[in-house]
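Changelog-linked ticket: adenosine-5'-triphosphate example.
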Amino acid sequence: MSREHILQIKNLDVQYYTDAGIVYANNKINLELKAGERLGLVGESGSGKSTLALAILGMIKPPGGIAGGEILLDGRDITKLDEEETRQMRGREISMIPQGAMNSLNPVMRVKDQIIDSVIDHELGLGKEEMEEMVRYALEAVELDRTVGNMYPHELSGGMKQRACIAIAIAMKPKVIIADEPTSALDVVTQRQVMQTIRRIQEEMGAAVIMIGHDMGLMAQFVDRLAVMYAGQMAEVAPKEGAFRAPMHPYTQMLIESLPKLGAKGEFHGIPGITPLLRDLPPGCVFNPRCPQSFGPCKEVMPKFLEHRPNQWVACHLYENESEPARS
Ligand SMILES: Nc1ncnc2c1ncn2[C@@H]1O[C@H](COP(=O)(O)OP(=O)(O)OP(=O)(O)O)[C@@H](O)[C@H]1O
Ligand SMILES: [Mg+2]
């Protein structure tokens, strides 16, 4: 196992057991994260991004469950931790800025008490003064005035609320921060400011970040590597340059092609067809019904997720013969 990886996800399966059937939300996910790196996680709505984030945080609740695989944090499989151990890990080692975080703030609690609340659970043995110091650090890190600590969520603008959520997430200086669409409810200017704040904090703390989002334009500016999910599976993981300039998976290619060339905001659009139901996946490659390059094996055989170019991992039959060692 490589020492430089802070997080290693191996063959992770996460499923939701619903009345309509099993939802295969994460299928054989493989992903590694280096200490201090910024990884973007993209994919259409329902592709399983939040599920993966929740799994990493030990927060998959019934009707969901981890059905297989490992999640190694610093080499330790966190899927094996008990509830108390998971709670201790959360916030301190890995923390999340949840999707729709702004709305998750407690409306009847001052901002600083919400920061303290997230820390108090951890029984770090901090005194009152040290707690105050932590609040000061967290607010300063997200560029909120100290007085904001005494305010209630309704007194804050959208951008300030989002910063307050980030302050809660980073108060204990975790090694891994997962930000689930941290800017989707904000206007473009505020989005950029919040992204810059996350980036600065991430650099100062040396934390690794998994940034979940739809906006490829923001991703292009923020990340070192890009992971593309489709229908609960990892389609491609590549360094930013590879993903944007030489995408290999036809789905990634279509995502990149659909970007407005000079537009500031690069939302997904213009990809024909719909995502398959995760409880009724097609045989073979899950993307084959929408894939313009589908051929022979695609309808029957699920492609393996392989490193077809250096550091560029792709699940696609187009390349499977390519990577076999040449025999002559
Ligand atoms: N609690 C749940 N019970 C049943 N199914 C669920 C539950 N949570 C998620 N799912 C299903 O799992 C699949 C993946 O959902 P998930 O929220 O991980 O997608 P996502 O990529 O984060 O989407 P979005 O971009 O809309 O946030 C979807 O089909 C969703 O309906
Ligand atoms: Mg989501």
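Closing comment: Example verified and attached. The mean pLDDT is 90. The longest strand covers residues 5-18.
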